Amino acid sequence: MNKISKIIFILFFFNFLEISASFSSMKNNIIAKVGNEIITLIELENKINTTLVLTNQEINQKNINNIKNLSLKKLIDIKVKQSETKNYNIKIDELAIKSHMQRISKQLNLEPNSLEEFFESNRISYDQYKEEIQIEFLWQRLIAEIYSSKINITEDQIKKEINEFSSNNKKIIEFKLAELEVSYDNDSKNEIVNEIKNSIKEIGFSKSVLKYSISNSSLNEGVIGWVNSKSISSKLINEIKNLKIGDISKEILGSETLIFYKMLDKRINEISNQTNSDQLRKNIIAQKKNELLNLYSNSHLSKKKNNILIKLQ
User: Fold this and answer.
1) Which tops the pLDDT comparison, 290 or 53?
2) What pLDDT is recorded for position 227?
3) For the structural domain made of 155-306, what CATH number should be given?
4) Dist CA 259 CA 245 (whole Å)
5) What's the pLDDT score for residue 170?
6) What is the pLDDT of residues 92-129, one digit of tens each?
7) How far is CA 57 from CA 14, 24, 165, 193, 220, in A?
8) What are the C-alpha distances in Å from 49 to residues 66, 260, 269?
9) Average confidence (pLDDT) over 245-250
10) DSSP letter string, the chain
11) Domain 3-147 sits in which CATH superfamily?
12) Domain ranges in the chain?
C-alpha cells in the first residue's frame, strides 16, 4: 500500500481524526487509552493488516471495514491483559511462544526461520504480533495461577461419571472439537452470527478462529482436543452428536458469548480395564478444568475492563 493509498485508507477509516495533521504524525496518533496503556493508529492499522494477511484476505477497504471495530476491541482486550499481567511476577513461556510461531509458519507453508521475513515483506509488524502472543500466554498463566486452586472437582463427581459409563455401556463416544467463541449482545447477535458464518464460508474455520475468537484456544486454531459424550451438557450433545467429521455446528448461546464447534474427529473408547478407566478419569478432570479456566478468564477480563478507564480519543 503506497503513501497516497494509506492516506485514503485513513480518510475512510477514522472520521474522528484531524486530516490536517501530517501523515507521519497521524500514524502515531493515540486513538485510545486503556488505563496507563495506549493504542496508536499505527498499532490498529497493523492489527487489521496482520489479521487480513494471516487469514489470506486482500487488504482492501471492504475487508478493512469488516474488521476495524473487532480489531480495536481485540487491541483493547490485549491492553487490559497487559496492564493486569504487569501486576504479577509471571515469566514468559518461551517454549510456548516458539511452538506457536512454528505453528503459524506451518499454516503459511513457511520455514520457521523465515516467518519474520514474511511479516516484513507484507509490511506488517512481526514485533507487535509476537508481543500480543506473549501477552496472551502470560494471561493464560495468570488465570491458571489465580484460579487453579479454586477449581474443586470432587472425587465423588468423577466416580459418579465413571460408574455411569461402566454400568450403562462399556463404550464411550468421544469427539475431537475445535471452537470459535465470540462475545455478543442481544442487539448485535444476528449480525455477529451471520458475519461468522460468512467468514467460515469464505476463509474457513481455522482462519475465522484467528480472526474472531476470544477463547484461549484461539492460540491453537481453536482446537480443544478430545471430549467424551457423557461429560458435556445435553445441550451441546444435541448440537454436535450428528455432525460428520468436518461439519460445523450452529451457534450455541451462553450468557455473554456464543460458540461454534467444528467436528475434527470421532472415536469410541471401551471402558474395559483399569488403564482405560484411569485415562478416562484424567480426561474428565482435564476437560472440566479447561472449561472452568476459560470461564474464569472471561469473567476476570470482564471485571478488569469494567474497573479500568477505557477512553477513545
Assistant:
1) 53
2) 84
3) 3.10.50.40
4) 18
5) 58
6) 889 989 999 999 999 899 998 999 999 999 999 999 99
7) 21, 26, 46, 20, 20
8) 12, 25, 44
9) 95
10) --HHHHHHHHHHH-TTS-TTS-HHHHHT-EEEEETTEEEEHHHHHHHHHHHHHHTT---SHHHHHHHHHHHHHHHHHHHHHHHHHTTS-----HHHHHHHHHHHHHHTT--GGGHHHHHHHTT--HHHHHHHHHHHHHHHHHHHHHHGGG----HHHHHHHHHHHHHH-SEEEEEEEEEEEEE--TTTHHHHHHHHHHHHHHH-HHHHHHHH--SGGGGGTTEEEEEETTSS-HHHHHHHTTPPTT-BPPPEE-SSEEEEEEEEEEEEEE--SHHHHHHHHHHHHHHHHHHHHHHHHHHHHHHHHHTS-EEE-
11) Porin chaperone SurA, peptide-binding domain (1.10.4030.10)
12) 3-147, 155-306
Contact assessment for residue 82 and residue 226, using Cβ atoms and an 8 Å cutoff:
no
- pTM score above 0.85: no
Tracing cell 442481544 back to the chain, one arrives at 186
Calpha distance 250→207 (Å, rounded): 18
Residue type, 58: E
pLDDT at 277: 64
